[in-house]
Amino acid sequence: MKLLAAMSGGVDSSVAAALAVRDGHEVVGATLKQWSFEDDAVRVGKGCNTLDAVADARRAADVIGIAHYTFDFREIFERDVVDPFVADYAAGLTPNPCVRCNELVRFGALARKAEMLGFEGIITGHYARTDGTRLYRARNADKDQSYVLYAIDVSKAHFPLGEIASKDEVRGIARELDLLNADRADSLEVCFVGDGRRPGDVVAERVPVAVRSGPIVDDSGNVVGEHRGLAYYTIGQRKGLGVAAPEPRYVAKLDVERNAVVIAAAGGLGATSLEATRPRFVRDVAADGERFDAVVRYRGEPAPATYEATQDGFVLTFDRPVRAVAPGQAVVLYRGDEVVGGGTISNSA
Amino acid sequence: MMVDEPVHYLDYAATAPILPDVREAMLPYLAERYGNPSSIYATGREARKGVDEAREKLALAIGASPEEIVFTGGGTEAGNIAVKGVAWANAERGKHILLPKIEHHAVLDSAEWLAKIGFEIGFLKVDRGGLVSPDDVAAKLRDDTTLVCVMLANNEIGTIEPVAEIATICRERGVTTFTDAVQALGKIHVDVKALGVDLAAFSAHKIGGPKGTGALYVRRGVRLVPHTHGGGQERGRRSGTENPAGVVGFATAAEIVTGELETEPLRWTTLRDRLRDALLRLPDVQLNGHPTDRLPHNLNISVKGVVGEDVLLMLDAKGICASTGSACQSGSVEPSYVLKACGVENKWAEGALRLTVGRSTTDADVDAVLTELPPIIERLRSYKR
Ligand SMILES: Cc1ncc(COP(=O)(O)O)c(C=O)c1O
Predict the structure, then answer these.
(1) Please, which contacts does A141-144 make with residues 24 or more away whose CB atoms are closer than 8 Å?
(2) Domain region containing B338
(3) What is d(CA A269, CA A246) in angstroms, rounded to the nearest whole number?
(4) Is residue B113 domain-resident?
């Protein structure tokens, strides 16, 4: 098949492209220029977006022996990923930009461009599996990234790493192929935030009024400290609150109206149900009363829950209370290893 | 694309394949004639001889005297030395510089950098075809204008500028003129004395010479402050050990291409016109640049409803090498600043495609484009963006 490999310059996407070549596909590599860092000091060396990343991807393509192009996706990325990310944070939500990026950029705009250019599909270095109609967790459960893929159109997706059992195997293949970045660590940061920076910094730059310091209050309404701006906090967060208490306190709620961070002891954190919007189903829409294993954050534990559709999404009722359900994050519905669909958490109770 | 498929190279404005005679002429300087041209012993003297002869040959090719040639590390460096060097040398007299927005970035960005450190840039108008008007130059000259830059031919649209007329106007006003002749050399007759300019930039790789080698013509008596200081080579205007292999290759290429000016350009024009006439017959395709005052090998068209870069990728898959014309750095799809300066609307400018033919181009290359390009355009247009 004629496939376009989205290459970030990191080891995973490079090996994915190489494996597709090895499988006999006709592969061309492409790196998306998604973001320009104004300031060299925050220009990360490993994210998806930097010139270094483009150079690494090009070198990897040279080593694999495939053509490589760079596409300017800055406008699309800004519109579909960065702007909503900033707006969500400003609204007291905790977004997952990778979900939108995969849905709208990689398997959205890029897939459409690839099709237009005559490619039959897109290769990425994600750890997940698909047969073109369904989506499954990766063989290597530790690496599984199916959580950030629930919203994509899988019909054009190829994930060569999904079948690989261990990360070491990927590094081994990288070394075998003489891929220069075989030993480079992958970044876990949000790619456009920059090294040593926090998502709140990006929000503060763009919407300064949304990032103001304010009170930290406990569940009885007493002011117990001061926060730097809601965008620096996530529900379930324990560290960095600067609040002295006999037992650990966690962020329970981000109250935009009062610009307050509400904290609670561990016991006060559990949600028994959640509401979600922007529903996406890989193949078949779920039925009311259907049972799923729900995952509410990247690498989160599955929690058994019952599904019920609403007008603009669905409600999940958990069998047992689930901690740190953060509005803005994705909830993904699994049936065993299969990803059935998911949505964006709008509320929890 | 498989390596053994035929390649149709239609991007001579980007660079030209190294001529076999050029490679031959360079080889001794990459082997036994390794000496430093400043050294007194035999291998050094041989290298010196190579550089001296190259200087004479290049001077002859452009109508200059050998001592007016400054070898550089390419066209970009020549442009930088000219613009900054003249501006600095005349800074006490004035700080006003005139140029059109369609100059190559080597010149444009040098001027813009000067503007940041206290110089003033005035932009010359260009018409839809990319032509600068001598009247506009005359009208914009001021008492504190020290430098006028107008390229001899534009790299994207191939428009040939009325440089001789402009130089005459400037000379009468005591203003220095610089022309970027990188694209013109070997395509049209270039005689720096007839043009009447004070400085002119050239590049070897556009004419079948090696990359990273160029030259600046500096008329005797022109004031220029160097910006590379060191061993005083090139009469102190560009210090650094000379590049004998490079300049010998450059001069050899210059000699060959200027010797073919009576025959080759006519052949290119025939090929180019065949491409032009066939492509302009397609719906919603228009010509960019000037209909007549243009380089003989340059075609630049806009295809409405497509993005030029997409066309290039699909042509690449068919072994056809072309360009959008703009120096697209790491995949930027900003429409061409040259077309913008000419007043071409975005919806046309984003579909720009430049095809430039040359010495190796044959009817088979033109046929390949005419076979492959129309279906590509049709396909891309069928996808709504
Ligand atoms: C008009 C013009 N000026 C200057 C240059 C720069 O020359 P070089 O590539 O030798 O630095 C080029 C080519 O890229 C050009 O087309």
Answers:
(1) A142/A167, A143/A167
(2) 8-17+261-382
(3) 17
(4) yes
The pLDDT assigned to A43 comes to: 42
Q: CA angle at residue B274 from B269 to B275, to 5 degrees?
A: 100
Cβ separation B330–A112 shorter than 8 A: no
Q: Is A223 on the interface with B (CB under 8 A)?
A: no
The domain defined by A2-176 folds into Rossmann fold (3.40.50)
Q: Rounded to the nearest whole angstrom, what is the distance from the C-alpha of residue B182 to the centroid of ligand 1? A: 6
> How far apart, in Å, do the first and last CA atoms of chain A sit?
48
ipTM of the complex: 0.84
Residues B198 and B330 in one domain: no
Which residue in A135, A180, A185, A181 sits closest to A158, CA to CA?
A135
Q: What are phi and psi of B349, to 5 degrees?
A: -60, -35
Say which residues have a Cβ less than 8 Å from residue B215's Cβ, sequence separation at least 6: B58, B69, B70, B71, B72, B78, B201, B202, B204, B247, B250
pLDDT digits (tens, 9 = 90+) for A16-61: 999 999 999 999 999 998 877 655 444 444 444 456 778 889 999 9
Residue B170 and residue B290 in one domain = no
Are the C-beta atoms of B97 and B121 separated by less than 8 Å? yes
Does the CB atom of residue B151 touch ligand 1 within 6 A? yes
Does the residue B184 lie in any domain?
yes
Looking up residue B114, the CATH number of its domain turns out to be 3.40.640.10
CB count in 10 Å sphere of residue B253? 30
Burial status of residue B327 (CB atoms within 10 A of its CB: 0-12, 13-18, 19 or more): middle
Q: Which of B258, B285, B300 is the last residue of a domain?
A: B258
Q: Which CATH superfamily is domain A270-348 in?
A: Translation factors (2.40.30.10)
Please name the residue of chain A whose CA is at the shortest distance from the CA of residue B382.
A116
Closest residue in A to B313 (Cα–Cα): A117
Q: Which CATH class is domain A212-268?
A: mainly beta
